Automatic annotation (TrEMBL):
GO terms for biological process: methylation. Keywords: ANK repeat, Cytoplasm, Methyltransferase, Nucleus, S-adenosyl-L-methionine, Transferase. GO terms for cellular component: cytoplasm; nucleus; plasma membrane. PROSITE patterns: ANK_REP_REGION (PS50297), ANK_REPEAT (PS50088), SAM_RMT2 (PS51559). Residues 106-327 form the RMT2 domain. It comes from the Eukaryota. This is Protein arginine N-methyltransferase 2. SMART domains: ANK (SM00248). It is found in: Cell membrane; Cytoplasm; Nucleus. It is a peripheral membrane protein. GO terms for molecular function: protein-arginine N-methyltransferase activity. ANK repeats lie at residues 35-67.
Amino acid sequence: MNEGEQLCEAAKNGDSDKVRALIESGADVTHFDADGLSPLMHAAKLGHAELLKILLSAGAPWNALSPSNLSAGDFAMEAAHQEAFEVLLNAGIQAELVLGTIARKESKNANFEQDYLEDRVSFSEDKLMDSDSKAVMMAWEKPLMEAHAKAVCSGGGHILNIGFGMGLVDTAIQQYAPVTHTIVEAHPEVYERMLRTGWGEKENVKIIFGRWQDVLAQLETYDGIFFDTYGEYYEDLREFHQHLPTLLKPGGIYSFFNGLCGGNAFFHVVYCHLVSLELENLGYSTQLIPLPVKDCLGGEVWEGVKHKYWQLNTYYLPVCQSMEDTE
Ligand SMILES: C[S@@+](CC[C@H](N)C(=O)[O-])C[C@H]1O[C@@H](n2cnc3c(N)ncnc32)[C@H](O)[C@@H]1O
């Protein structure tokens, strides 16, 4: 048995002394055993918090995935090992806070959004797709969009929505008859369709065509703001948040589509914490309201769609408010 295998065995047995000794002699903490599991995953399954700390400080990656796409955090979460879960959650948040700095720099070179905005999109009854058969927006999200609309319209007044897509959230916002309803949309074909379907003639609606980054000067202040774009990165969402203090009125409500890492339950928890933490640093408290979505997602929903961007049973709808208002 090589040292990596021995490390997995020792972790499986919860033998911290052996794990320490093997690490000291240079055993590979990133090793995967024949089942595709790492020492960290074995420690997480056992709920051995101390062992997790030893492995993490020796450089074991918190976000490695098993063949069934589960991370150590998923194993701890599944087995309800609270302490182990928290150790891994903190490791994930710390790593992303640091690595986020790198992602921030790299994303500046990415042109996924630019390609999307220049390509054709196709509309059908139940989805809006990009030219690569990736779903931009899907009808199964309608109840979620209605819940977002309810949250951001709870104080009435002036509402801002970034990203029209299929118009689900905007249709729901209209039902609350806001004083004004501003919609920012960047894709020329989505914009054309908005005009064709009469959105430009609604009395309280103002459409601003362009990327939100480019039209900030045309925006005012709002009582409710919703953000849901496509082709952007976590960094863009973060950047939008930097503008909240100038866009959101005191007492206003902000919400965004919370699809962060929607393919993995533990990564999603890490990102929910991360975004709440970053909003907190800007002076906003975030409440995450759990909404069951399993019933909206029959197997046929993803037929013909390349990227299954959501695979979790619960959606956590963020409701953000200035901490001054909630005190
Ligand atoms: C996921 S869809 C929005 C779905 C919408 N919430 C609904 O209820 O149907 C994202 C939309 O954002 C638009 N978009 C992408 N990048 C944008 C940007 N930087 N500024 C404004 N809109 C953008 C896309 O063209 C697309 O229409």
